[in-house]
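Hello,

Our lab assistant flagged a job as stuck in the queue for most of the afternoon. It eventually completed. Since we weren't sure the result was trustworthy after the delay, we are filing this so someone can double-check. Below is the sequence as submitted and the structure that was eventually returned. Let us know if re-running is recommended.
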Amino acid sequence: MNRIEAKALSKSYTNGAGTLDVLKEVSLSVREKEFIAIQGPSGAGKSTLLHILGGLDRPDSGNVFFDGADIYGLSENERAAFRNKRAGFVFQFYHLLPELTVLENVLLPALIKSWGERKQAAPYAHKLLERLGLSLRLEHRPSELSGGEQQRAAVARALINKPLVLFCDEPTGNLDSENGDNLLGLLKQLNTENQLTIVLVTHDADIAKTADRVIHIKDGSVVN
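-- returned structure --
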């Protein structure tokens, strides 16, 4: 079963220098429980594609179906609710709020849920942080963490609402090789043990090999 199906996605941006075609009629599918990598050089359109697949950025044309429903047929509020409930995001830059503790950062996506769901989120956050080796960092601020710890906290935050798909945009880009390898191992574990669908963007062929399947993109088009 396809969890995500994208059809003929196009996206361009216009500035003073003219129009830049970032995506050109891109079509692809991601099966349920699959771990795919989208690989290509810088500027190929990888991140734009990921953002469109996850409902963060609207395409100029084309459709994205998530479990058969067209997410760009939803209103802005409905699409925001979709992202909160069904999608988790991990970026190259951790985007942790510096004034909040690790635990508070992880709980943020759960705060807009009902009172009962918020009550359940706190124990789950503790469980996630323990699994990710951060049980002794709950009350630390992001500035007190290493890069690897910050990225693991960002992963926990992405998982707090139990998403169906985890979207990762160059998640090892700010990590050294050891922490990068550890994070990739964690993602693979989440995919195999939790049966979490993962879509990962990278420019690195070695990182892409971690996935079940690699989709190559160049100059805004899928090349194989």
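-- support follow-up --
The delay was a queue issue, not a problem with the job. The result is valid. The chain has a mean pLDDT of 92. Strands lie at 2-15, 18-31, 35-39, 61-66, 69-70, 87-91, 165-169, 197-202, 213-218, 221-222.
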